[in-house]
């Protein structure tokens, strides 16, 4: 699970089974490139200076830590791997957990990742669409490898957050300086004003 802090003090987190491509998707969005191979296990909560990202590696033993973060998320990207039926089946459990711990008005997006792997596909696009309809969430198929729909996914979430903030303005719940070490923040990073 990764926490991704973006402009306007919105917090987006990526969730989904291990290996579905959460880190790869974020790297593709952030740096516009695909770095093949698994990322070395990020233990506990890590930090990258490029953008403020917390990565808790999506491992079971960190679950209690990650539950606390659901509360502060304005948006959630829930990923499955289109070549892995179990990762797709588990999205229901993730959605249950999200509904239990996240805010009621959180923006949720279901992403079928690795859509470039057409010959190994195990989940049809319409199965993803159907699940998304059932839960009333937005759906896209993405590829962290080719970049397909990666920007669109983050942009769609951003637009939805703006739309909702116009309709239902709320005070930000978590300030960046509550969770970041000031000396690690690059000047002008992230469009936040510190107050
Ligand atoms: N072909 C293809 N491979 C991908 C894609 N996204 C990720 N991968 C590969 O899938 C593997 C897992 O990707 P990660 O980004 O580490 O997955 P993760 O969800 O962050 O995994 P955890 O950190 O264990 O939770 C790596 O070998 C990636 O290179 C994709 O869109 N297409």
TrEMBL record:
InterPro entries documented for this protein: P-loop_NTPase, Small_GTP-bd, Small_GTPase
N-terminal signal peptide: none
SMART domains linked to this entry: ARF, RAB, RAN, RAS, RHO
UniProt cross-references to SUPFAM superfamilies, sorted A to Z: P-loop containing nucleoside triphosphate hydrolases (SSF52540)
MF term (GO), any: GTPase activity
Recorded superkingdom: Eukaryota
Family: Belongs to the small GTPase superfamily. Rab family.
Protein name: Ras-related protein Rab-37-like
Organism: Sinocyclocheilus grahami (Dianchi golden-line fish)
């Amino acid at each position: 699970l990764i926490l991704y802090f973006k402009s306007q003090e919105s917090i987006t987190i990526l969730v989904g089974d291990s290996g579905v491509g959460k880190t790869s998707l974020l790297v593709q969005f952030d740096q516009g490139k695909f770095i093949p191979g698994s990322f070395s296990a990020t233990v506990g909560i890590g930090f990258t200076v490029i953008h403020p990202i917390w990565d808790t590696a999506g491992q079971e033993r960190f679950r209690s830590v990650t539950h606390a973060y659901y509360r502060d998320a304005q948006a959630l990207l829930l990923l499955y791997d289109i070549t892995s039926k179990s990762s797709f089946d588990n999205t229901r459990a993730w959605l249950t957990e999200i509904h239990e711990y996240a805010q009621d008005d959180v923006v949720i997006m279901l992403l079928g990742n690795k859509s470039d792997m057409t010959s190994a596909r195990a989940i049809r696009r319409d199965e993803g669409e159907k699940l998304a309809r059932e839960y009333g969430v937005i759906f896209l198929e993405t590829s962290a490898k080719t970049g397909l729909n990666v920007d669109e996914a983050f942009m769609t979430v951003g637009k939805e957050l703006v739309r909702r903030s116009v309709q239902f303005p709320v005070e930000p719940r978590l300030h960046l300086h509550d969770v970041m070490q000031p000396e690690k923040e690059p000047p002008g990073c992230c469009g936040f004003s510190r107050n």
